[in-house]
Amino acid sequence: MTIKATPVIKDGCLMVRGKVVLTRVPQNILVSPASNDSAFFGATDPTPSSRHVFKLGVLEKYRFLCLFRFKIWWMIPRVGKSGSEIPMETQMLLLEATEESALKDEVNSSEASTDNTFYILFLPVLDGLFRTSLQGTSANELHFCVESGDASVQTSQALEAVFVNSGENPFELIKNSVKILEQHKGTFCHIENKKIPVHLDWFGWCTWDAFYTQVDPQGIKEGLQSFLEGGCSPKFLIIDDGWQDTVNEFSKEGEPPIEGIQFATRLVDIRENTKFRSSGPDEDCTSLHEFIDTIKEKYGLKFVYVWHALAGYWGGVLPTSDSMKKYNPKLVYPIQSPGNLGNMRDIVMVILEKYGVGFIDPSKIFDFYNDLHSYLASNGVDGVKVDVQNLIETLGSGNGGRVMLTGQYQEALEKSVSRNFKENNLICSMSHNSDSIYSSKRSAVARASEDFMPREPTFQTLHIASVAFNSLLLGEIFVPDWDMFQHTFYC
């Protein structure tokens, strides 16, 4: 008897290769082919809404690995054996099917091979103006949530919300599935079809863990000098957060500090701040351009990148700034998905929900990026690390929804980077939502986990595990950036 690999629904069960994967599949679940061996699952509801949660079926007795967003910015892995263990905001689900996995088989067990392990992949994807995530319930039900992020963007059906495929090799399965989605959806590109930045070939140093936002030219010089004296000079430098001209209107001298208030800071101008208009007491460098020229020549740097947020800065841009007015900014307040609120709350969003974001008009966002990047390129900067990207998903209300807005920002960013920097020199960060992942046509490098935190030893194992497992999915669309590391040399 020939067993087809294509997922099907039969007698209320989702079947893959003759195995029952899900039971009690509702009648409103729809199946449509994606390729010869894969399919999309969707559902209908008589009432239009901007957010639907559909039951897909009951999942039991399968070992699984899933990747889920434990906070708005980042994914981490989780393993389990039943639907109740699948958290909200799951963006990849990989099941292991063995001879004992299923509740029942179409094939008599005596006829089946004893070595019959294969893998079943569920990828919740973008479906038009909606994005999808998976989640489990205490009753072991597997649900999928489709949402637009804009109350005025509604639907009564999601036809291609969850992609399902199977294969004997989990790595090849994920690769092949992403390639099928690339061709079918047309909203993103596989890593094999992207230009890889050449900075990846060189040892680099990011200033964040050394200085945080207190970074200045003198400190960078001292850091580069210490590398030189140690015999391992980096050829690639990222000047992280702290170089921009910003203002915080809510942090007052003499008043008790508010936790996280630094995230309400907004961008005033695209030019560097006063720290980078003078490199120290000798004032031998009076501009960003002169400083970069100096450190490239003295320390042999090949590439210097700088950091900025997708919205300009953590709190966006200052709407009253004369330099920003041409981008039609306005103050808006983020609205988070229930999926985000169901996992770990983040202090950044707590602050921005209270104080708002200086939001650039989507029709002007390319002009902003182009002005910023052309200025940086003219000053010797070779590329950018663009952070806080998932903030955009919370600003979709009144802007066509989160998927549309993310696509607009992502397209504008990639177009500006392509125009102003030679080698697709872009690193994406805090971008682990499916809106960004499946809207990436050119971006070729992305952070694969939350920050490396050298002062929190218990975090190190989770950091390594996260980047390794997250790279199973992210590595098919980006070169995974494992963030920083710290090494102690013993003599």
UniProtKB/TrEMBL annotation:
Name this protein carries in UniProt: galactinol--sucrose galactosyltransferase
EC numbers: 2.4.1.82
PANTHER family per record: GALACTINOL--SUCROSE GALACTOSYLTRANSFERASE (PTHR31268:SF10), PTHR31268
Keyword terms, alphabetized: Carbohydrate metabolism
Annotated organism of origin: Salix suchowensis
Domain of life, per lineage: Eukaryota
Enzyme class: transferase
Alphabetical list of InterPro entries matching this protein: Aldolase_TIM, GH, Glycosyl_hydrolases_36
Family: Belongs to the glycosyl hydrolases 36 family.
Catalytic activity, reaction form: alpha-D-galactosyl-(1->3)-1D-myo-inositol + sucrose = raffinose + myo-inositol
